[in-house]
Amino acid sequence: MKRVGITTTIPSEIIFAAGFVPVDLNNIFVTDLKRSSYIQDAEVAGFPRTICGWIKGMYSACLDHGIGRVVAVTQGDCSNTHVLMEIFRMRDVETIPFNFPFGRDSEMMARSLKLLMDYFAVDEFQTEKWRVKLNRIRAKLHEIDRMTWEDDKVTGEENHLLLVSSSDFESDPARFESKLDRFIKEAASREPMDHPVRLGQIGIPPIVEGLHSFTESFGARVVYNEVPRQFAMPSGGETLVEQYLLYTYPYDVGPRLDDIAEQIRLRKIDGIVHYVQSFCHRQMEDLIFRERLGVPILTIEGDTPRELDARTKIRIESFIRMILDRKEAVL
Ligand code: SF4
């Protein structure tokens, strides 16, 4: 199996078309039993304590899993990825840069895609065949997302885990699609859940564990996972260029705000949990969300893969109680 590591969602259509298999380094890091020691290993190797845990985890997971080639997003995701690429090269990991063009310029996007296609020696025809194939699987993820907020039959955690896997289709699209088919069938037979509070989780996927299940134990279900939903490309697009321009995460915050505001209305969301990662520049987006989204926002921060700490649990519980009190006051 020819594996290619990826540091975030990229046009995996091109990788599959070339006969390679994408492996999301975030996913293999955070699902590995050694996830905590991966962070320590990176610090022992020389990564500063004040660098985000996702970067350190991806570094160690890549080396530990023996992945010799990585596509790294050098524009539109994370400035830390630039230096991570340099370090990978020092460790004999081949790196391939990919840019999401600032300003969502379609010509520049077409050029970025062409460069990646040239690297993997595939053409638009081969890539388009994979786009159609992967979009069939994405449609099943959209159905699971709909079953989360409209049918109330899918938990926030199930939604998160399945949608976040669409960055690399668990490195096996056929097996992943069968898993989704089984899941949809089983979830359809469930009774609807009835949580009095409906939450949205925005920001990067949490490195901490148990966020979704903890909210459910206090009567609040996450019915919207912003970034995992974006990984599944909910806005579609007629071409690869259009599809990756409609994907909101790598560009300026404006389209993200519009998307979040629309989903708050559609999904009848009572409050937002904004997850931020320690030492991540995206923490500054919190200011924008607080000024622009007209619902209560709780900002929680995590650093390494471990259970929610007691202080965060108390804050989440108080947030849910505050929303419940407000709702009861209106009734
Ligand atoms: S959490 Fe922030 S700093 Fe860490 S990899 Fe993601 S974008 Fe970069």
Structure description:
The chain has 331 residues and is α/β, with parallel strands linked by helices. It has one domain: Rossmann fold (3-Layer(aba) Sandwich), CATH 3.40.50. The protein starts with a strand and ends with a helix. The chain has helices at 12-17, 25-30, 35-45, 53-64, 80-90, 106-119, 124-149, 156-164, 173-188, 211-217, 226-231, 240-246, 253-266, 285-292, 310-330, and strands at residues 3-6, 21-24, 69-75, 94-99, 197-202, 220-225, 271-277, 297-302. The protein is built from 15 helices and 8 strands. Helix 10 links the parallel strand 5 and strand 6 (220-225). Helix 3 (35-45) crosses helix 4 (53-64). The mean pLDDT is 96. The strands form 2 sheets. The chain has a 4-stranded parallel β-sheet. It has a 4-stranded parallel β-sheet with strand order 6-5-7-8, with helices on both faces. The chain binds iron/sulfur cluster. The site of iron/sulfur cluster (SF4) has 10 residues, from helix 4.
Secondary structure layout plus pairing:
Blueprint: E1 3-6, H1 12-17, E2 21-24, H2 25-30, H3 35-45, H4 53-64, E3 69-75, H5 80-90, E4 94-99, H6 106-119, H7 124-149, H8 156-164, H9 173-188, E5 197-202, H10 211-217, E6 220-225, H11 226-231, H12 240-246, H13 253-266, E7 271-277, H14 285-292, E8 297-302, H15 310-330
Parallel strand pairs: 1-2, 1-3, 3-4, 5-6, 5-7, 7-8
This protein binds iron/sulfur cluster.
